Structures are given as structure tokens and as C-alpha cells.
Amino acid sequence: MTSSATAAAPIAFIDLAAQRARIGKRIDDAVQAVLSSCRFINGPQVGELEEKLAAFAGSKYAVTCSSGTDALALILMAWGLKPGDAVFCPAFTFCATAEVVPWVGATPVFVDVKEDTFNMDPESLELAIAIAVEQGLTPKAVIPVDLFGQPADYDALLPIAEKHGLKVLCDTAQGFGGTWNNRRTGSIGDATATSFFPAKPLGAYGDGGAIFTDSEELATILKSLREHGQGVDKYQNVRIGMTARLDTVQAAVLLEKLAIFEEEIAARDVVAKRYNALLKDVATVPVIDPRATSVWAQYTLRLPPGVRDGLADALKADGVPTAVYYRLPMHLQPAYRHYPAAGAILPVCEALAEEVISLPMHAYLDAATQDRIVDAVRRGLGR
């Protein structure tokens, strides 16, 4: 690797164009088929996608919907969460994880994360449950997040949930396609929500999401809720619902992307392992639990305090984009700081918010471009 690449063209953080160069004709044909049929809502591609998603995940049912956020909300609605109920969420996550909890009147209670994987800390969850009870709340559900592509520690979290009678809603918006003990995300817990936002490892050409469950009853309720709470038809409403369908065009796009998803997961893993090998001596590189596989939604380094922002500036000058997930933990966000947490301070979340930085990551990141990124990181860190 050399430093001569600094004058080269800017690098894409997530190169969707490279994927389109591979399967663009197939996607164009699939979209054209929808346009020709004029079945833009609930076309046959939606049902086909649900069948293939369920088979991929190893779940009995997949229910597609309009976004990953709506997927989370629909599950809480179907479970009948209400005021006075506590739902436990990691504080180091995107806001959607907790955002949906107040929508149903329940209270989010924030939990710290683990130092190694950045996923929910089981000990902090136990503390948060005790605090929720002290405040007169009824513990009802927990939402582990499969952060940056790696599944949470379900071996530890599921027994805690069972002990306290909590429903487990797995938020795999970043982790769909990963595995825990050889089980795909989507086949763990009581229900799973994922996102098909374009930047996700399996992304649509717009918003979209899906829910996975083995419960026929839950799947039936979810399908009703996403269609205004309809009963025998759309003019009979048996419950309060919403408009949360996945449109047929997005289903058609996702069918083509799902066909190559396994190959892209493998390619992402190659990129991540190469990053680790080339950067492990200058930064804290991601740790993958031996029981897990990651889809590497993000490749995130941890740096000593005070280093991150200077590195980001240096990389930007070299044409290398970066991102910070997340600069402010949920329990410190202005809209959420009045909700309970496992403690006044969640030390790991708060440290990570000051120290993490994510580098370009996608299935089409070639070795030469990755070498340029690594070279820029090492120079930016003076190494």
C-alpha cells in the first residue's frame, strides 16, 4: 500500500451502483413486469417474497411491510402493549428501536451494551428490569438489536426474558442474514423485525421491512394491522390498524437481490476479515462472537478518546467517507432522556459514542480500494 492514492476519486461509503451493475438488467425487467401488470399494491411478487424470506430465515411466516420502523411498531401493536408496560431497549442503537414504544403508550427502558460486541448487556438488562419494577412499570418485552450486522447474545438474553415473562422482539434491521448458533436471525425470539432501507445489506430501492414469526396467530393479526385492521375484506375493520404494506415494485426488486444475498454476505465477510487483519495493530477492530456470523452492515473501529473526529477529517481530505453510529446514545437524546434507564450513566454506551467510527463497507469493495482506505486510516493515525 502507498500514499499516492490520495488524489484519486472519492470512495463510496456503500456502493449501490456496483451491485446495480451486476443485476441491474434483472431488476429492470422485474420492475417492468410490475409496471406492465399494473398490480402495484399486493401483487403476486409480495407473496412470493414473503415465502422466500421465510425459507431463507428459517421461520414459518414472513409478513412484509412498509419499513423496519413499522415492522417494530406492528409487533408491539399486535401484542397489545399499553401504558404502564415497560419495553427494554439498548441505548446504543438507531432511534427507531425505542421510537415505536411510546407509539403504543408503553415506556422504553434503556439498557447498556457489551464492551466487545456493542450488543445488549444481559447484566444491565437485569438491572433495568429491577428499576422498571421499582418505578411501578410492568415488564412486558425486550428488543435486542443485532448491531452492525452481528446477532445479540441470545444464549444469555432469552433465559432472562423467560424468567421475567418478557416477549422477545429481535431488531435485526442491521443483522438480517446473520446467524446465532447456526440459526438465521428471523428464527429467534417471539418475533423479528428487519428493514429493507436501501443501505441495508438486503436493501430495496426505497423503504420496506418485514416481520418473521412462527406464530400463525401473530402473522394473521399483523396482516390485518398493516391493512387498516381489516377483517374479511378492506371494508370490515376488526382492529385499529395502519397503512403499512410493502408495494409490489419493492418486492420485485428484493426478489432479485435476495437471489444473490448469500454471495454478498460471503463477500462482505471477506472484506471485514481483511480490514481486521490490516488494522488490528492501530485500532480496536470488531469482535465477532464465536457463536455468531455477521452480515457486516457496518464496519466499525473503536479508537482512543479524542482521536475519532481528527481521523474523520483526515480521511475526508483523502476522499474516504466515514460515519459515526451513534454520536448520542438513546438515554441522552433530548426526546428520550426522561425515560428510565439501567442507571444514570450507561458507561459503555457513552464511551462508544465518543470513540467509534465506521469505514466504507459493501460486498463490492475491491482490494485496491480497500488498500487505499486502510492506507488513509494508518496515515491519519500516524501509523
TrEMBL record:
This protein's record includes keyword Oxidoreductase: no
Keywords linked to the UniProt accession: Pyridoxal phosphate
Gene3D superfamilies: Aspartate Aminotransferase, domain 1, Type I PLP-dependent aspartate aminotransferase-like (Major domain)
InterPro entries hit by this protein: DegT/StrS_aminotransferase, PyrdxlP-dep_Trfase, PyrdxlP-dep_Trfase_major, PyrdxlP-dep_Trfase_small
One Pfam short name: DegT_DnrJ_EryC1
Domain of life assignment: Bacteria
Claim: Thylakoid is one of the keywords in the record: no
CDD domains (alphabetical): AHBA_syn (cd00616)
SUPFAM superfamilies: PLP-dependent transferases
Family to which the UniProt record says this protein belongs: Belongs to the DegT/DnrJ/EryC1 family.
Designated name of the protein: dTDP-4-amino-4,6-dideoxygalactose transaminase
Organism of provenance: Xanthobacter agilis
Phylogenetic classification of the source organism: Bacteria, Pseudomonadati, Pseudomonadota, Alphaproteobacteria, Hyphomicrobiales
